[in-house]
Specification:
The chain is α/β, with parallel strands linked by helices. The chain has three domains: about 15-65, no CATH class; about 80-275, Rossmann fold (3-Layer(aba) Sandwich), CATH 3.40.50; about 305-390, Rossmann fold (3-Layer(aba) Sandwich), CATH 3.40.50. It has helices spanning about 35-40, 80-95, 115-120, 175-190, 205-210, 225-235, 270-300, 315-320, 370-380; strands at about 15-25, 40-50, 55, 105, 125-130, 145-150, 165-170, 195-200, 220, 235-245, 250-255, 305-310, 330, 350, 365, 385-390. A seven-stranded mixed beta sheet has the order 6-5-4-7-8-11-10, with helices on both faces. A five-stranded parallel beta sheet has the order 14-13-12-15-16. Strand 12, helix 8 and strand 13 (about 330) form a beta-alpha-beta unit. The protein binds zinc ion (ZN). The site of zinc ion has 8 residues, from loops.
Length: about 400
């Protein structure tokens, strides 16, 4: 595998820490038939660690295989936990920045829910940009100034100067992160005093825990608090505030333009720790995959019925990065847009929680520990008596 240099820092000391022969090239997509789901294209994946900046990326990523304009289903907005988090984030932004009468651009706005909330609460005008935006799913029953463009972010195509740039759960999909952050920085710099807010998954716990279900094809770029901040500083931006949120799963970062103070807060000084984590990751992830394989196989051999709760990318990765798919009886998701459709790779049909009553599971594996209480409550509400574990 010939990888010349790190897309974040151009470093050349790179080490492969993970590899899969084949994984579905989209894990958020849902198919209408089981056959189409099983035949869904796969591609090899590997993860490489940059010793110079701590960035982790998939050098075998081929963006042409991923069609973000297709019917992807990345919205987590059906979860009460996620909604509460997004709402608190809107309140935080509104407290930190007076956006009334100003202009906010959200790059990678998905279905537009967050931007709509931000516009409603702050009184900013909002422009959402996303090739996967679907107008028929957007409900805007008000007179707020909000607009959408169904395209990829290209500053040359935008004749405007933003006061606030939002970019949530998008940077991990970008292979050339140096150029992308440079573009966002130049775009935001059109307006003196503008601020950019990024929310990006945190890979540190994935490295610590061997959490292979958080590695999937569309995510070609993986950050920690430190590697995320280093990338922005290298592109001439100042990192004003950065922290972890959502049980440590997400990096939240506010950046501005002009000179960085140069002092690096303790949480961002993580390179030595990352080098150690990268070195131990191959052994760790092998043990964790083995653990889940044993867990599922033993229960299956005992005649127990096993369901997975979460028909999103974590579930798809969990099922297609292991050899246990055949032992999983059912996949459940609370999102009505997913129900009745089929997961790429294994072809599992996504059921509504109520359908568990027809064939009650003995074990439910929750694909995100953050939702564990929410799932436990739903299981109790259904009157089911089963083992609940979270990855
Ligand atoms: Zn690097």
């Amino acid at each position: 595998m010939a990888v010349a240099s790190c897309p974040a820092c151009n470093g050349t000391r790179l080490a492969e820490i993970y590899a899969l022969d084949a994984i579905p090239v989209q894990s958020c997509i849902l198919l209408d038939t089981e056959a189409a789901a099983r035949d869904f294209p796969r591609a090899p994946l590997s993860l490489v660690f940059c010793d110079a900046c701590g960035f982790v990326f998939n050098p075998r990523f081929d963006g042409s295989l991923v069609d973000y304009a297709s019917a992807t289903e990345e919205s987590q907005h059906f979860s009460g936990t996620f909604n509460a988090f997004a709402r608190s984030l809107v309140d935080e932004i509104a407290t930190r920045h007076d956006l009334a009468g100003k202009t906010t651009v959200e790059i990678g706005c998905g279905k537009g829910d967050f931007l709509h909330e931000l516009v409603s609460v702050t009184g900013t005008a909002g422009l959402g940009i996303d090739p996967g935006f679907l107008l028929d799913r957007f409900v805007a029953a008000d007179d707020h100034a909000i607009a959408f463009r169904r395209e990829y972010f290209d500053p040359a195509a935008l004749d405007m100067a933003p006061d606030f740039v939002v970019c949530r759960h998008t940077l991990e999909h970008v292979p050339d992160v140096g150029r992308f952050v440079g573009d966002v920085g130049a775009f935001a710099a059109r307006k003196p005093g503008s601020v950019s807010f990024f929310e990006t998954p945190n890979v540190e716990r994935v490295l610590e825990e061997g959490a292979f279900w958080d590695i999937y094809y569309e995510h070609c770029s993986y950050f920690t608090l430190g590697s995320h901040a280093r990338l922005f500083r290298r592109q001439g931006m100042a990192v004003d505030h950065a922290r972890l949120a959502y049980d440590g799963q997400y990096i939240l970062q506010y950046s501005s333009h002009g000179k960085d103070s140069g002092s690096v807060p303790a949480g961002q000084d993580d390179l030595e720790r990352l080098r150690a984590l990268a070195a131990s990751f191959p052994g760790k992830v092998a043990r964790v995959r083995h653990h889940w394989s044993d867990f599922v196989r033993q229960r299956h051999a005992d005649g127990r019925r096993i369901a997975i709760w979460g028909g999103g990318s974590k579930g798809v990765s969990f099922l297609t990065s292991t050899d246990i798919a055949g032992a999983i009886a059912q996949v459940v998701d609370i999102n009505p847009y997913k129900q009745g459709k089929y997961l790429p790779g294994t072809g599992h049909r996504v059921s509504a929680p109520d359908e568990l009553l027809q064939a009650p599971p003995d074990t439910v594996i929750a694909m995100n520990p953050v939702y564990r209480n929410e799932i436990a409550a739903r299981i109790a509400e259904l009157g089911l008596d089963c083992e609940l574990v979270a990855v």
